[in-house]
Specification:
The complex is a heterotetramer, with two copies of chain A and two copies of chain B. By secondary structure, chain A is of the alpha+beta class. Helix content of chain A is about 25%, strand content about 25%. In chain A, a hairpin with a 2-residue loop joins β3 and β4. In chain A, α2 crosses α3. Chain A is globular, with a radius of gyration of 12 Å. Chain B is α+β, with helices and mostly antiparallel strands. In chain B, the strands form three sheets. In chain B, strands 1-6-8-2 form a four-stranded mixed sheet, with helices on both faces. A four-stranded antiparallel sheet of chain B has the order 7-5-9-10, with no helix packed on it. In chain B, strands 3-4 form a two-stranded antiparallel ribbon. Helices cover about 35% and strands about 35% of the residues of chain B. The chains are: A alpha+beta, B alpha+beta.
């Protein structure tokens, strides 16, 4: 199982701030996880579609498409940051 | 180094005094305060909410500070960032850098702000007369952060 | 713009609050505080005296601020410089610049400090265990001021 | 008459902070005034000698060797500044 968090506009559009997901055998990285979520269709497909300005973190560090994701990880998806 | 995420306001003088307390090597304090403006992207802002990613926020800012310390000769760094409900003219963020000399303190302070703007997980949602909206990231902030890759 | 030469200490928070009072266009406040160090040029400093040229000092600083305002988009500027007897860890100077955006505020603040260091008529005399000595001007300060001729 | 002020190390070395001087007919600029003061010899000659790091202002504005000096002006000589 991994924990997936959603923040800001993404959290509102997806209607959830966090969930627990059992990682399928064929999902090893962030790109795979994002594809898995897009398969849900609806808001998931729309908000996480390739080209959308979505950022991600794995275990609280900024991550890229090819960042590894494994059981026990905390993954987060969010829009580009706007603090400061 | 000190990093604080808080809903409460802060007093820059008191924070700077605490940062340099007992260190007579400090000759320079560069600081920056970010403030809520009443207008953004042409719309009137009545109030805003700052959301963040607890845990990652502190780590991201500490990493930015570490990078600054590896590039410039500074003595100490303080970052306070507020979250929650804020109104126009409220203080949002304080970055204060102490050093022996001003050049390093100025550079590190501006670097930290520029990186914080693009790498620390905060999100602003504005309440305007037309309703609420999530603030869009600015290309100018990416450019501001990017230029540090090429200068010293 | 506000320029004050005074023997009294100052409170940065209160000064910055006064500088941005009533102006909801301010989104950024860049500031610098110069502090007396206990060591300078290898000698231990027990106390220092700051002498200035009354009248010219204010004019020189106002001219530096005018130059900064012609180069960057800033809202207001405050400079406070102390004179008289100062001890290590005492505040010497405060430069605070408000603007809509941080880039202009940072640049103007650093520019004003660099120019003040080479163009405002102040002179420091240090009391050390070896006696009193007038502080020598630094070549690094000339270089810091000079580089602004070539950058934006 | 002009007013001449001296500051910091120069004030101490010359033993005076200010004086009034009647400008000779042949003195029209800062360079001429400085030469006039050097003619006094002693500390004047030593402190104001060409090559010494002396700065000057005329009517409270930074000035150069060729800056004009006329009756009624306030002239100041001082070391390079060290504030901030």
């Amino acid at each position: 199982m991994i924990t997936v968090l959603y923040f800001a506009r993404l959290r509102e559009a997806l209607g959830t701030g966090s969930e627990r997901i059992a990682l399928p055998q064929n999902v090893h990285d962030l790109e795979g996880l994002r594809a898995l979520l897009i398969e849900r269709g609806g808001a998931w497909k729309q908000e996480l579609a390739p080209g959308k300005p979505v950022r991600a973190a794995v275990n609280q560090a900024m991550a890229q498409d090819d960042t590894r994701v494994a059981d026990g990880d905390e993954v987060a998806f969010f829009p580009p940051v706007t603090g400061g | 180094m000190t990093v604080r995420i808080q809903t409460a306001d802060f007093d820059a003088s008191a924070e700077i005094a605490a940062l340099r307390r007992g260190n007579p090597k400090v000759g320079a304090v560069a600081s920056f305060i970010g403030v809520v403006r009443d207008v953004n992207d042409g719309g009137t802002v009545a109030e805003m909410t700052l959301e963040h990613y607890p845990g990652m926020t502190e780590k991201a800012i500490e990493e930015i500070i570490d990078q600054a310390r590896s590039r410039w000769n500074v003595l100490d760094v303080l970052v306070i960032h507020r979250v929650g409900q804020l109104k126009p003219m409220d203080q949002i963020v304080l970055v204060a850098v102490t050093g022996a000399h001003r050049g390093d303190a100025f550079a590190a302070c501006e670097f930290i702000m520029d990186y914080l703007k693009t790498r620390a997980p905060f999100w602003k949602k504005e309440q305007t007369p037309q309703g609420t909206r999530w603030v869009e990231a600015r290309v100018s902030d990416d450019i501001a952060a990017e230029r540090w890759r090429f200068k010293g």
